[in-house]
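Re: that backbone. Tokens:
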């Protein structure tokens, strides 16, 4: 199987920190407007920054870049999600099926109402646009397929992605309405009857063994309620956790090999 893993970094929203584990069988790409960036084993694909960087990021996330269409499986990962142990078994299990897509559970277990309320409360989308989006789905007789997903880690089969062409409508809804792909995706899953692999963990929760989350870069404008000291403490804890998960993975791998050799 040919597998590509890609991320998007536009502007200075996230750090260009390398993953601790990179599978030698996968190809890694970083789409960025900064060609000077270097990140371990990633091929840098330069892009021009658009006026709405957030929407541009979601477009590249939802619409798999054409340069990756010659792979069997393409994996999108958010820039601040770092791989700490092998995901090969997950990817291989997905590849051996004929499923369209694999994704993780929502980090907070939200239903649709809770997710909408969270977006409004955290000012991630305007209430009017969220309501307009939900009204559109209701008038279109579309239902939300549950449970909600965490879209920070998405595995897609290219052939099925190209045949079903669900990406175009998904991004169109994101662009036209709330801008939140977590809101639009449940309705796209329902409309296109996507064949799914649901991974019962979230990369954003600490209790998974595969990933660790590094905080976005500190912004005094966006984080008025968070002091820089609190940010540094949070960053240190999460950065340390990333290494801890990697060390645990290496240790388990070493002892398993040792055990197998002794049998």
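Recovered sequence:
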């Amino acid at each position: 199987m040919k597998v590509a893993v890609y991320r998007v970094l536009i502007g200075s929203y996230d750090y260009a920190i390398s993953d601790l584990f990179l599978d030698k069988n996968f190809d890694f790409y970083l789409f960025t407007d900064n060609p000077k960036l270097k990140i371990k084993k990633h091929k840098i694909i330069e892009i021009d920054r658009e006026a709405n960087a957030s929407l541009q990021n979601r477009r590249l996330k939802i619409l798999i870049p054409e340069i990756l269409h010659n792979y069997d499986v393409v994996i999108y990962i958010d820039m601040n999600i770092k791989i700490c142990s092998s995901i090969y078994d997950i990817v291989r299990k997905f590849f051996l099926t004929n499923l369209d897509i694999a994704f993780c559970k929502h980090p907070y277990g939200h239903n649709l109402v809770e997710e909408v309320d969270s977006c409004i409360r955290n000012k991630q989308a305007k209430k009017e646009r969220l309501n307009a989006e939900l009204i559109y789905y209701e008038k279109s007789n579309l239902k939300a397929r549950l449970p909600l997903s965490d879209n920070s880690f998405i595995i897609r089969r290219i052939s099925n992605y190209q045949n079903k062409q669900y990406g175009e409508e998904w991004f169109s809804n994101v662009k036209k309405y709330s801008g939140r792909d977590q809101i639009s995706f449940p309705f796209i899953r329902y409309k296109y009857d996507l064949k799914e692999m649901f991974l019962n963990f979230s990369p954003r929760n600490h209790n998974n063994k595969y990933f660790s989350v590094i905080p976005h870069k500190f912004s005094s404008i966006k984080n008025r309620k968070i002091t820089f000291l609190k940010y540094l403490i949070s960053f240190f804890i999460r950065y340390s956790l990333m290494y801890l998960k990697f060390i645990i993975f290496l240790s388990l791998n070493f002892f398993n090999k040792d055990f197998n050799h002794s049998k």
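DSSP finds eight helices and nine strands in the chain. Strands lie at 3-9, 26-32, 42-46, 73-77, 81-83, 101-105, 149-157, 196-199, 211-213.
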